[in-house]
Specification:
By secondary structure, the protein is an alpha/beta fold. The chain has ten helices and nine strands.
């Protein structure tokens, strides 16, 4: 890769500064959560963003909600790579969310006539959505990169979501699992830069939050993946108070804790964990 003179780089930045005097900061793709988007300025091209949590906190549901908001709400071509569930399971979650049909009832086939009408409307909506799904559980990083390049070239994809960063098979085996995960995180960041689009990935936290009195996760809790902290441009940690306390006055709420933001401030947005509809909603 050849070098570029600083004068060539400074020109567009100066032009952008002129625009910013009379307009808002240039935004990436909005996730659909206003407070989060205000802090991050959206999902920016070339950036790697990460959603991390303990099991059953809702990271897959949040990821699919962001895919829905971007692909369906804004008609942005999207590739969803899901290594933690099948394509049918991922699609069922979307049908439930788009159609506002109970996720359990949809899975069990226990639908009313109104549910069936809603499912049909959701099917029509999804049929028109620029959303592609890859659900290969044995995907390597090289294969993922190949799929991504093909999706960009052939379908104009401008956003990639990866559910299960640590489930991607490493190209090189290391004695330390942390090295393998670190390689994958760095490769995802490189892929985002090369394709000039944002990548949003999910990963796990270790058990340390459950040993704290308040159970709230911290950035150091990223499991086997200290390198993810360095590679990611922003990291979102998820916390549901009612998961640990069934009598919590905050039942049904999810805290989305922006614990790292390379280019801005940190903060928290609270959403409604509507798992019965397979989605996370903005709080009223």
């Amino acid at each position: 890769m050849s070098s570029t003179s600083i004068s060539e780089l400074a020109g567009p930045i100066a032009e952008r500064a002129q625009v910013l005097e009379s307009g808002p900061l240039a935004r990436g793709l909005d996730t659909g959560f206003a407070d989060l988007d205000a802090l991050t300025h959206g999902l920016q091209p070339g950036h790697l963003a990460v959603i991390a949590s303990r099991p059953s906190m809702g990271r897959t549901t949040l990821l699919s909600t962001v895919c829905k908001n971007i692909a369906i709400g804004r008609s942005v071509p999207t590739l969803a790579v899901t290594l933690e569930e099948t394509a049918a399971e991922f699609t069922t979650r979307l049908v439930s969310s788009v159609g506002r049909v109970g996720h359990y009832h949809l899975q069990a086939g226990q639908l009313t006539e109104e549910d069936r009408r809603r499912v049909e409307r959701a099917r029509a909506t999804l049929a028109d959505a620029p959303l592609r799904v890859c659900a290969d559980p044995s995907l390597t990083m090289e294969e993922l990169a190949g799929q991504a390049c093909e999706a960009v070239r052939d379908h104009g994809v401008k956003f990639i979501a990866v559910d299960g960063l640590t489930d991607i098979k490493p190209e090189k085996r290391h004695d330390l699992r942390e090295r393998e995960v670190g390689d994958i995180a760095r490769d995802l960041k490189t892929l985002a830069r090369e394709l000039e689009l944002p990548i949003l990935a999910t990963t796990h936290l270790n058990r340390i939050p459950e040993q704290r009195i308040n159970k709230v996760p911290k950035l150091d809790d990223l499991r086997e993946s200290g390198a993810v902290t360095f590679a990611a441009d922003w990291i979102l940690l998820l916390f549901r108070p009612d998961y640990y306390d069934r009598e919590s006055p905050r039942a049904g709420e999810m805290d989305m804790i922006l614990a790292k933001n390379r280019f801005g401030a940190l903060g928290v947005e609270t959403g409604a964990a509507a798992f019965h509809y397979g989605s996370i909603l903005k709080m009223p």
